[in-house]
Amino acid sequence: MTGGGELLPATVILGASRGIGRSIAKIAARDVATVVLVARSEAHLEAVAEEIRSAGGRAVVFPIDLASRDASKQLESFLAEYGLFCDVLVNNAGYGLRGAATLLPIADQLGMIDLNIRTLADFTLRFSPGMARRGRGGVINLGSVASFLAGPNMAVYYASKSFVRSFSAALSQELRATGVTVTCVAPGPTATDFLDSSGAGRATLFKILPKLSADYVAEQAWRGFRSGRRLVVPGVSAKVLIVIATVLPNSLLLPLVSRLQRRKSDLCPCGSGETSAKCKCSSLRS
Ligand SMILES: NC(=O)c1ccc[n+]([C@@H]2O[C@H](COP(=O)([O-])OP(=O)(O)OC[C@H]3O[C@@H](n4cnc5c(N)ncnc54)[C@H](OP(=O)(O)O)[C@@H]3O)[C@@H](O)[C@H]2O)c1
Known about the structure:
- By secondary structure, this protein is an alpha/beta fold.
- The chain has a single domain (8-284), classed as Rossmann fold (3-Layer(aba) Sandwich), CATH 3.40.50.
- It is 46% helix and 13% strand.
- Strands 3-2-1-4-5-6-7 form a 7-stranded parallel beta sheet, sandwiched between helices.
- Helix 1 (19-31) packs across helix 8 and helix 4 (106-134) packs parallel to helix 5.
- The longest helix is centred in the middle third of the chain and has 29 residues, at 106-134.
- The site of NADP nicotinamide-adenine-dinucleotide phosphate (NAP) has 30 residues, from helix 1 and helix 6.
């Protein structure tokens, strides 16, 4: 903690305890003075901070549930207490859920909107005005290839990532003249806990697609941000997927994605209580 005086720049990474966020934190720490690691699990954050410190970097941890309404305010106070300001914000915390929207718990789906959209917007809107005033820094938002299409059987997740891409592109234009960079990163499937926790890893789509490593995605994200890019799509397979999603009409794309993200053991969205393999309702003939 500092006793006052000039504030120092910090790179704040939301969701830094594991996965892509952890990798971005370690890469950013080589370039910047201080990284602030944010997530719920304090022990994991401390482990990442220890790795960074032993490589010669400076890291502080701020354990918090980012779904709490005042999380961005709390972080702002924490930074001021430590004599820091948010120079670069990495909005990486997020989660997904695979399954029919009519059958997944409403609270879990709204929670996804809260974290993937509301928290991301809240943190961006709280810290980007200061970046614009200072004429430096920027925001890295973790979108996804999913932001380029609608995703039956992961409907809310795909829609949340469309928000991230649209919001990032518009903000990058608004802030362009100020010298502030806003970069949206759109990875395809990446080998992290996300694939298990979302249930996506058990769907055919994610089984057949190649998986990127979190380190590769992070390296591409950080490099793209540093060179002022609006959109970073790591890896060839993600670029091909985006072309396919852009070229195919929805009449072909939606049934295809629906099928590839469904499992035979899933309950049918019609509510019959039958599995999708046995149900004869019309929604599954498409
Ligand atoms: N993996 C993929 O295939 C993939 C592909 C495209 C895009 N993405 C996007 O990339 C981002 C990172 O994904 P990932 O694969 O690295 O996921 P992950 O391994 O599951 O990590 C998610 C991170 O977010 C944090 N987090 C989740 N909920 C939180 C909450 N309520 N409060 C605070 N922190 C929270 C987690 O920490 P705690 O649990 O400790 O809180 C963790 O650090 C996400 O936005 C995801 O949508 C992932």
